[in-house]
Amino acid sequence: MRKSIKFSFIALCISNAIAVNGAFATESNTATAPLSKQQFLTEINKLNNEIVAKEKATEGLSQQINTLQSQITQAKQDLARQRSERDTLNNSLQASNSEKAKLEAKIQSLNTQLADLKKNTDPNIANLIKQKDSAEARLQQVKAEVQNKTAQLNKLNEQIKQSTATVAQFKTKIKPLETQLSGLNTQLQQQQNKLNQITAERKTVADKIAQYNKDREWVKKYELDSDGVRWRDIHFEYSTPVSTAGKHSARTSGNSMHRHLESASDGLGNPQVISRPVPTLPLSQYKPDPTKINEVLISSEIPENKGKAVGKVFFVNQHYSSYVAWQPINAIVDDYIGSDDMHEVLSLLEYDSDKFTTAIVRTDYQKETSIREQAQQRYDAVKAKTPVITYRGQMINVGGKSGDITLTADLNNNAINGKITNRTVNPVQDSRDLFLKNGVISIDRNGISFSGKSGRSIVPATNNPNNLPLSGANFYGTFAGKNMEEVVGRIEGLPNESDSVFGGTQVTK
Predict the structure, then answer these.
(1) 461 with 316: CB under 8 angstroms?
(2) Contact at 8 Å (CB) between 134 and 142?
(3) pTM given for the model
(4) Cα(28)–Cα(508) distance, rounded to whole angstroms?
């Protein structure tokens, strides 16, 4: 059993060493290791050697203990045999003593009778004398037997005494060995626990390496364009959002966004209030999840205000697009300076409210070829496979989520229609579901886009007996992905409501 435990430990150690070596080999091919491979291998080899040495010591002690236990067993058997012989001898001695007593009594009786006969000159005296002599001879024989058996009994008692002492001696010897074996087993368990800990740490490292590789693949697949640039991050040229990638790789909705005010020092160290564009939005740091609305504070880009929030963004990262709503702390809206208590007002703002939102799309068009031609080829290829596509997603504006959206694109007829539901609005806003109608899909130098007709395309679904559209309201957007997997766009002109951006992912193939 101990050999099987030993081989199991050794196999585990070798397996752990190979696993660590493999994990770090992978890491050395893909990234800088967060922990030292050599440290883990050295520690595991050291523990392997210590465990093997302790196993050998344990095996030696076990053999000694087994030998002593065999000797104790033999000694106990000898002791039991000797005690049995002693009991038998005791019984025989008791029988001889009994016979001796009877003979002595008989001789005494015969002597008495002989004396009486001598007085009376009985003719039977000769016979009595003969019986007496026979009894005395037998008495001598019995006495000799008693003496011999007594000597044997004394010898057996001495042997029993020696055997008892031998058993006690063996027990005395085995006790420290058992204590030593217990100590070695404790050390062995400690070493195994340490090995288990290192194995767990190795697994943690391997998991981190695997996660790193997985994240790197995710970044490569979804966040980097053909030039290795993070296309999803948005920076601002004055007030206009611009992708960090080229126009062939990604494109923003292009509208300028509201600037904000910050306190800062001038060149002489005097405090002043300055107008600033939206800071860079690092959207690529967040994994794609079309169902999740991220809410992230954005810090100032002025060094002296580092770490100070100037606003926050609501955004959704789809796989090939993102849509964003910017909520500045101190906004500049038509000469009106916002504050922390005006966010609800911003969400109700109709005029100039498109400047709180933007969207970005990954296009992945070839650089030296007409975008229009590539877009047409893409459109025709998708239409041949899936002429009707349904998209579902969400809407957000400067106040957060503003509804859910469903769009259906009919590629054969270049048409797109849909519906807005679950309107998340303030009490003064219109909470009715809305139909999106009369959308037209078009292809131009910017790619594949769609739009409704202003004042004719958004129709309340209830409390509208004449099916009248909302005046001035409209929807428009663009398709994202090489297979038109996603849409992003804008809803504008809803009564008492800031513009919303929306996104949706394909739910029919």
Answers:
(1) no
(2) no
(3) 0.58
(4) 42
The closest alpha carbon to 235, from 399, 358, 352, belongs to 358
- b vs e for 9-27, b when ≥16 Cβ sit within 10 Å of the residue's Cβ? beebbeebbeebeebbebb
The gap from C-alpha 155 to its chain's centroid, in whole angstroms, comes to 74
**How distant, in Å, are the alpha carbons of 95, 152, 347 from that of 82?**
20, 11, 106
- Beta pairing partners, 388: 410
Give the separation between CA 320 and CA 391, rounded to whole angstroms: 14
Give the β-pairing of 388-397 and 400-410: antiparallel
The DSSP-derived string for 92-126 is HHHHHHHHHHHHHHHHHHHHHHHHHHHHHT-TTHH
Place of tokens 């694109």: 409
Q: Which two tokens stand for residue 127?
A: 């016979």
Interatomic CA distance for residues 499 and 492, integer angstroms:
5
Tens of pLDDT, residue by residue over 334-357, are 444 444 444 445 555 555 555 778
Q: Which amino acid is at 372?
A: R
Give the gyration radius of the chain's Cα atoms: 52
What tens digit of pLDDT does each residue of 317-329 get?
999 999 998 888 8
Q: Give the Cα separation of 210 and 26 in Å (integer).
A: 9
* C-alpha span between 425 and 347 (Å, rounded): 9
Query: Are 475 and 452 a contacting pair, CB within 8 Å?
Result: yes
247: which 2 tokens? 């126009």
Residue 393 near residue 320, CB atoms below 8 Å: no
Q: Specify the range with the lowest mean pLDDT, choosing from 249-263, 372-386, 447-461.
A: 249-263
